[in-house]
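Quick one:
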Amino acid sequence: MAITFGTDGWRAVISDEFTFENVRHVAQAIAEQTLDRHTSDQAPSMVVGYDTRFLSDRYAMAVAEVLAAHGIHVWLTQGDTPTPITSYAIVDKHADGGVMITASHNPPRYNGIKLKAAFGGSASPAT
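Output:
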């Protein structure tokens, strides 16, 4: 199954295509991209947030674990949070970017991953 990013990230049906295995694959790609783009002598950092959808907290933990395994400092929100708060935290923490586990406006059976840039907004299509 190919994981295809669309507008602002990837969305799929929970437990169909949006599985822990696929979430970890996407987190691996995000970790590699973060390390490739990082230019500071300090370790890169990312903020990971999540919404109230089914298993969002567990998916966020899986993403955080993969990022941390690559030496990326992770700020994981203490609870569910709206996307704008995660974006604010990225800027506030001077992080290299962030990940938000949410399917936004999609039906409840979906979940998703939004990739955020260091300025808190959506990562570019090139990223």
